[in-house]
Amino acid sequence: MKSTSFRRLWVGPLLACAALPVSVTAQETAPQAQESVQVTAAQLFEFAEQAKAQGDFATAATAYEALANDPDQSIRSEARFRHAIMLADRQGRYADAAVLFRRIVDDEPDQARVRLELARMQAMLGNRDEAARELRAVQTADLPPQVARQVRFYQQALSGRKPFGASIELALAPDSNINRATQSDTLGTIIGDFDLSEDAQETSGIGLSARAQTYGRIGLRDDTDLLLRLSGSGRAYEKSQFNDYSLALQAGPEMVLGKTWRVDLAALGGLRWFGGDLYSRTLGVTSTVTHAVDPRTQLRLQGSATQEDDRLNDLRDARRAQLTLGLDRAFSQRSGGGVRLSGDRRMANDPGYSTASGGIDLYAFREIGRTTAVVRGGYERLEADRRLFLYPERRKDDRFDVSLSGTFRALTFEGLAPLLRVSYERNLSTVEIYDYQRIAAEIGITAAF
Predict the structure, then answer these.
(1) Are 251 and 232 spatial neighbours (Cβ–Cβ below 8 Å)?
(2) pTM above 0.90, yes or no
(3) CATH of the domain at 84
(4) Is residue 231 part of a domain?
(5) Would residue 227 count as lying in a domain?
(6) Distance (Å, rounded) from C-alpha 105 to C-alpha 160?
(7) Which of 32, 161, 187, 339 has fewest C-beta within 10 Å?
(8) Contact (CB, 8 A) for 148 and 114
(9) Within a domain: residue 106?
(10) Bigger pLDDT: 381 or 49?
C-alpha cells in the first residue's frame, strides 16, 4: 500500500523525542512547560520506520497507532498495514497482525494486497480453510498480473505446514429445549400412554458452551505430514443431568497432491459424556479430500466409518458410515456461500435403532462494514429400518433448522470479537418422544479475524 496524501498531526514531546536515547543532568530534569509538536503524517511515518529499524518496536507501534486515528482513510490504512507487517514479520505476532489486516479489509474490501496478507496470517495460524476462503475472495475481482502472481504464490504457500495451532470459542447458551425432548407429558405406545418424567420432557436452561481444538504436525516428506488433532466441545447447565461433553482424537497422514488437491486420512477415537456419565465410545477411520475447482470454488468430500459403543443400551451399539459433499464459492470480495449434501447409515444391534438419513445444508455470508453475518438453513430426512416394539409406528423424521449469526469486529478487544448466534430447530417425527422444537442462542467471543 502507498499513501497519496499526508495531513498534519499533533503529538506530545515524548513521542517526538522517543527515537533516540537522551542523557540529561539533574538540573535538566527540572519541570518545564509541556508543548505540543506539529508534524506531518509523512514525518511520523518516517519516525516509525526509523524506530522499527533500530528494533524499537514499541515506539514504532505507538506512532502507527497515532496515525491510525487520522481522519484520512488512506493514512489510517497505511499505518495499520505497516504496523501489521511489523507485527508479523519482525515479531511473529500473527494473530495481532490478522486483526489489523481484517480492519483494513472491513474499511476497504477491494484491497487485494491486504486480503492476501490476511490469507497469509490465517495460514501461519494454521487456519487453512479460512486462508483459502480469503484467496477465493481476492480472485472474484479482475487482478493485475503482478497481483495474480502473488495469489498463485500464496496458494502454493498454503501447502506449507504449521507445526502447531489451537482455537477456542466460548459462549453463553440460552436454550428453550436443552435436551431436545418432546413437549408432551405422556408417551403413546401400543399398550397405552405412559407418563414421562420431567427429565424426558422439554427443559429450558442457560448454559456455557465451549468449543476448542488443538493440533500438531510432524513432517514426513515434502508433501506429507503426520497430523494429530484433539478437539472437544461441551455445554454445562445448572441442572447437571443435562451437561453434554465430547472429546475426539484423530491421527493420520495429510498429503498435498499437486496444486489443487489435499487428502487427509486419519484413525479416530471419541468419547461422549451426558449428565456426568460416559454415554458412548467411538472408534473408526475418516478421510477428507479437498479440491480447488477454480480460483473461486472449492469442493470437499468427507467420509467416515465408525463403530459406536452405547454405554447405556447394547441394543443401540452400531456400525456407522457417513458421507458429506460440500461446495464453497466466493461471490465477491465481501460475500460467499456454499451447499452441503450428506448421507448417514447407522446399523444397530436392534433394527429398530438402525437408521438411514440424508440432508442438505445451505449457507451464505456477507461482510457488512465491520460485521460478518452468516445465515444457514438445512433439512434432513431420517427413517428407521423397523418399528420398535413399544411404538405404534416406524420412526420417520423430518428435521428443519435455520440460524443467523454475526461477528461484531467493531467491538474487538485483545484480538477477540463478540459473537451472537440465534437458531431454530424443528423435528417432526412419527414417534412422539422424538418430536420436538427448540430456539437457542449463543452469546460469546471468537477470533476477530
Answers:
(1) no
(2) no
(3) 1.25.40.10
(4) yes
(5) yes
(6) 24
(7) 32
(8) no
(9) yes
(10) 381
Cell for 69?
A: 486515528
Residue 193 has pLDDT above 70, yes or no: no
Alpha-carbon span 412 to 120, nearest angstrom: 21
SS3 string, the chain, reads: CCCCCCCEEEECHHHHCCCCCCCCCCHHHCCCCCCCEEEEHHHHHHHHHHHHHCCCHHHHHHHHHHHCCCCCHHHHHHHHHHHHHHHHHCCCCHHHHHHHHHHHHHHCCCCHHHHHHHHHHHHHCCCHHHHHHHHHHHCCCCCCHHHHHHHHHHHHHCCCCCCEEEEEEEEEEEECCCCCCECCCEEEECCEEEECCHHHECCCEEEEEEEEEEEEEEEEECCEEEEEEEEEEEEEECCHHHCEEEEEEEEEEEEEECCCEEEEEEEEEEEEEECCEEEEEEEEEEEEEEEEEECCEEEEEEEEEEEEEECCCHHHCEEEEEEEEEEEEEEECCEEEEEEEEEEEEEECCHHHCEEEEEEEEEEEEEECCEEEEEEEEEEEEEECCCCCCCCCCCEEEEEEEEEEEEEHHHCECCEEEEEEEEEEEEEECCHHHCEEEEEEEEEEEECC
Higher per-residue confidence, 213 vs 426: 426
Beta bridge partners of 246: 233, 272
pLDDT in tens, 280-305: 999 999 999 999 888 889 999 999 99
Number of domains forming the structure of the chain: 2
State the pLDDT at residue 19: 36
Neighbours of 327 (CB within 10 A): 14
Which of 157, 177, 206 represents a domain boundary (last residue)? 157
In this predicted structure, which of 26-30, 213-217, 227-231, 282-286 has the lowest mean pLDDT?
26-30
Residue with cell 472429546: 247
Could you tell me if 42 and 151 lie in one domain?
yes
Domain with 108, as residue range(s), is 8-16+36-157
